[in-house]
């Protein structure tokens, strides 16, 4: 494949910025456009549910790169510009407002958006963007009588932990019998539940949300078991949807994300990276879409190189972390709820341990509660293709 004359990156968050940085670092000196639908320069999202929401960090602290270094990349930076369509055959990109751009190589990094419950209502929030965070923080600052978090996944759990750390009364509602049991399995899901109950969260599991009550502003959350919880503020954290609707009819394959090959290409001269990309990870033997910070950074760089002609497969061991109260929860690998799980060090009762996940005799995951050194060493063993029993018996 010949080198592109220009590269247009759609999505100005972590994956998009790392792609732009990689293009310049690898010597691409042609035009690079970075298009983002938010008005903010690229910023880091993990602190939104923690330090920024807690009021400990100002928004300017989460910039991914200083403005002067961003300028050094010599980008056509278009903020507040939303992509509305793409045509693979004629290489045109449409933006809200009617502008059409002729493009050569394209990297899609449009991320994902939050799932919602019902029509917009005052006091009901999602948390994905800086603006979302600041709106929710303002409601927290008003000292609400009670915060209800719908969904006990990692974002919901972090928001609940931040709210409790701020001294707020918090209830959390989870449709599963245990938080994160679809990811971590029921045993480790119960450990996550215990962490929140240890800190005074009113955790309701195995029940869904029927709807919200209130004249204008939310006042109550109705549950599917017929009960209700009074609420001054509600945060909905029930997962995300990849932002691919603008690509319908583009000529690209879409299936819960932009379908890519092992190198990250969705078509000749078109790549995807981050939350929006689905690709076959040969290390695990199946297609995946990963919504983690580490993956967005690494895949943004890898897919940029694919546009420049690199064809090596992208085969990471996914890794992420979640800070909740005084616990740092880390997961390396790609696990399923029916994997075999063994605690190999530490104490579950003390919420300080490492557990390993096995499938088909192989080590596929490592979960740590305040065990970062262990998780990183087990991650290396996953990369090496270690057998499960070998990892369980290893001293790390």
Q: What attributes does this structure have?
A:
396 residues; FAD/NAD(P)-binding domain; 27 strands; 3 domains; Enolase-like, domain 1; alpha/beta; 6-stranded mixed β-sheet; 5-stranded parallel β-sheet
CATH class of the largest domain: Alpha Beta
CATH topology of the largest domain: FAD/NAD(P)-binding domain
Biggest sheet: strands, sense, closure? 6 strands, mixed
CATH architectural type of the largest domain: 3-Layer(bba) Sandwich
Number of strands: 27
Distance between the termini: 44 Å
- How many domain units? 3
Structure classification: alpha/beta
CATH superfamily of the largest domain: FAD/NAD(P)-binding domain
Biggest sheet, spatial arrangement of strands: 3-2-1-7-20-19
Shape type:
globular
Mean pLDDT: 97
Task: Evaluate the radius of gyration.
Answer: 22 Å
Percent of residues in beta strands = 25-35%
Name the helicity range: 10-25%
Tally of alpha and pi helices: 10
Contiguous low-pLDDT stretches (5 residues minimum) are none
């Amino acid at each position: 494949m010949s080198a592109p004359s220009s590269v247009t990156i759609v999505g100005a968050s972590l994956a998009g910025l790392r792609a732009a940085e990689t293009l310049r670092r690898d010597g691409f000196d042609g035009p690079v456009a970075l298009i983002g639908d938010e008005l903010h320069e690229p910023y880091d999202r993990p602190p939104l549910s923690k330090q920024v929401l807690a009021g400990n960090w100002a928004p300017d602290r989460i910039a991914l790169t200083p403005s002067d270094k961003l300028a050094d990349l010599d980008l056509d930076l278009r903020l507040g510009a939303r992509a509305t369509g793409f045509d693979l055959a004629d290489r045109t990109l449409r933006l809200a407002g009617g502008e059409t751009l002729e493009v050569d190589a394209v990297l899609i990094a449009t991320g994902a958006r939050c799932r919602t419950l019902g029509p917009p209502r005052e006091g009901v929030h999602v948390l994905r963007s800086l603006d979302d965070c600041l709106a929710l923080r303002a409601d927290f600052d008003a000292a609400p009588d009670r915060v209800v978090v719908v969904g006990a996944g990692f974002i919901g759990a972090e928001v609940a932990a931040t709210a409790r750390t701020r001294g707020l009364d918090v209830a959390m509602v989870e449709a599963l019998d245990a938080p994160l049991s679809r990811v971590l399995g029921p045993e480790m899901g119960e450990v996550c539940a215990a962490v929140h109950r240890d800190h005074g969260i009113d955790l309701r599991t195995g029940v869904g949300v029927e709807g919200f009550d209130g004249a204008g502003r939310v006042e109550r959350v109705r549950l599917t078991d017929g009960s209700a919880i009074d609420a001054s503020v509600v945060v909905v954290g029930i997962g995300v949807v990849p932002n691919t609707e603008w690509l319908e009819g583009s000529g690209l394959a879409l299936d819960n994300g932009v379908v890519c090959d092992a190198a990250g290409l969705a078509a000749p001269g078109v790549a995807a990276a981050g939350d929006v990309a689905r690709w076959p990870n040969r290390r695990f033997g199946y297609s995946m879409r990963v919504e983690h910070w580490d993956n967005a950074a690494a895949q943004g760089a890898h897919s940029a190189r694919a546009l420049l002609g690199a064809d090596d497969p992208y085969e990471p061991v996914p890794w992420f972390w979640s800070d909740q109260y005084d616990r740092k929860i880390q997961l390396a690998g790609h696990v399923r709820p029916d994997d075999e799980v063994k605690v190999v060090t530490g104490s579950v009762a003390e919420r300080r341990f490492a557990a390993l996940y096995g499938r088909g005799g192989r080590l596929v995951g490592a979960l740590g509660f305040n065990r970062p050194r262990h998780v990183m060493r087990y991650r290396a063993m996953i990369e090496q293709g270690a057998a499960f029993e070998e990892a369980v018996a290893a001293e790390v």
